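retry 2 of 3: previous attempt timed out while embedding adenosine-5'-triphosphate. Reduced batch size to 1 and resubmitted. Inputs unchanged:
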Amino acid sequence: MASLPQAPVHMGTVRQQQQQQLMLRHPNLYIACSTLQPTRHRGRGKHCAAQGSVAAAVEEAKQSSASAVLETASTSGLNSVRPSISLSQSSGVGVKVVGVRKEYKTKGGVYIGADGIDLEIQAGKMTALLGPSGSGKTTLLRLISGLEEPTEGRIYFDDEDATELPVQEREIGFVFQSYALFRHMTVAQNIAFGPRIRRLGIDLDQRVQELLELIELPGLGHRHPPQLSGGQRQRVALARALASNPRLLLLDEPFGALDPMIRKSVRKGLKGIIDKVGVTSILVTHDQEEAFDLADQIVIFNRGKVIQVGDRDQIRRSPATPFVLNFIDDVNQLPVNCQFVKRMGFKADKPLVMCRPSGVEVSAQPPDQSQKFAPAIVVDRIDIGSMIKYILRFDDGVVIEMHLQGEEHERRLAFDLQQRVFVHANPEHFWPFYPDEISSAPL
Ligand SMILES: Nc1ncnc2c1ncn2[C@@H]1O[C@H](COP(=O)(O)OP(=O)(O)OP(=O)(O)O)[C@@H](O)[C@H]1O
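retry 2 succeeded.
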């Protein structure tokens, strides 16, 4: 039997300690034998218990280092037959979600986590699940991982129906916000942990070196996680998730614990590594900039449904619904019968319209007769570096925001506070809507 890590591991509760002990002593049996949580998984014999215990423990994992146990356990199935391949040969699986619905039945009622989702996740690409809180992003991630089971619908990994495949046979790597590294193991031991317990039959030292180079921390294998920066820890967590050659990588708010100052550079680094390996990855985030910056494909969620799928340009240029526009942009929302909207000659049978601040034009002089305009007063000016935001108030009291980009001096000299200006917008860029069309209240 492969030698197991000797280092003690800090765990918060007795249950966590039991899980970790079991994991360390019988790593391959951990999933199958754990009876620490009742099962909710139907009919797959020994794997049923696993499903429940892993699901429950992953919940805890978000708050503690126990997640390392689970994340690694999820790729530790005895039945796993994926051949040992080098990182450069890694490849991802395509994921197809067909008519998936997830109902959570609780004492308080039935809550809908996913409401009829159809989605294709491209092999070897990064897909971001983006949406407001409670929109169903994590539910879909957990359904794909096997930590939850759909109430209806099927999930395919390439042509294989994976709907009832036990979590430990899905060959998935997890990266959590909390890093989930074993604090008392070295970086190298953390990375080697998964392949060691899976008995991948590879040269572990070579794999660790390969991964340390990939994450650009070649000399840090002997250090312990507390001796690393947040960004370095996150890269080690990624290396550990990749060490067992997952065919799918799930990243659940992986940058949430990082200082906003370094988040951008860390995420670029992570994306570069994932691209090099070529594994399919799914990123859950509520940070739009992060999704647009990293993902090849973005899936916008609201109230358990997929609202739009596209790349960043498609979503920015052509938001599918008022909800998407409102979610991705800081839009103006105006009454349809306000002076400005009426002067632009726009009519609709919905009570409100939205328009992008970037679509609002302002001039100091009244435009020529051919152009419609509404007079307003500049009531505020906010310089945010790359642009200046102007807040304008029309004579009927309605307020609108306008963004001015361009050369810095032009922006600065453009308009003074209290100046009377003339405002125009192309009515083709007005979006009429009912308030409930942009609601994100969970179902
Ligand atoms: N275990 C559960 N029991 C009952 N309802 C649940 C459970 N998990 C999720 N839900 C409900 O399912 C809906 C979707 O939740 P989910 O966690 O998938 O949203 P999310 O988009 O990931 O949100 P966040 O960004 O806040 O994590 C919510 O209404 C939520 O309350």
